[in-house]
Fold Phosphoribosylformylglycinamidine synthase subunit PurQ.
Amino acid sequence: MKIGVITFPGTLDDVDAARAARYADAEAVSLWHADEDLHGVDAVIVPGGFSYGDYLRCGAIARFAPVMTSVVEAARKGMPVLGICNGFQILCEAGLLPGALVRNAKLHFVCRDQWLRVENNTTSWTGRYEKGAEILVPLKSGEGGYVADQSTLDELEGEGRVVFRYVGENPNGSRNDIAGVCSANGRVVGLMPHPEHAIDALTGPSDDGLGMFYSAVDALVAATA
Ligand SMILES: NC(=O)CC[C@H](N)C(=O)O
């Protein structure tokens, strides 16, 4: 299976996201912000970092990159897409996920290992997890506060589209302790924490994040069966 990993000017975690895809036995395909197509990949990861220097708002410029036209089109046709941190911000700016990410409540950049609860294990990126499982992955962001209007929050909760929830102290003021959400079809997932930095205990706090990448490969294999 081919998983594309996009690099924008300012992206930081593309190499780690590609490594995580390879750990899950996928072929990682580098995509560039200026690409006009997705080079035949089966899924896409929009990784973390500081695309375009976070100018205007995190993700506000990257969402206009040429590659994002293809990502939006592919996502609307059912391609699995994962947005990690800045990638989550970009997917919200591009309209593929509801809500927005705002400055952390205490206006400090938060960088710590963070416990999460898996609330939805039916998405393209969470099938390997038990519902209710708690995983430990790094959180490192300045605009990690998930916000949405009450009707959107009610819709997300009612439809089970909150995929990850912070456990313990809320690190950034996110409404309903939301750490990640998904599209209505469960194919597009965005989260602020970094599963690509938790794929082996040697280089991260755990290997709890690896399941997301295996889940995508499982979903892609199942879709072609
Ligand atoms: N690690 C990241 O991707 C950071 C995302 C964004 N630059 C923020 O600080 O919120």
Remarks:
- The chain is about 25% helix and 25% strand.
- Residues 101 and 146 are 5 Å apart (CA to CA).
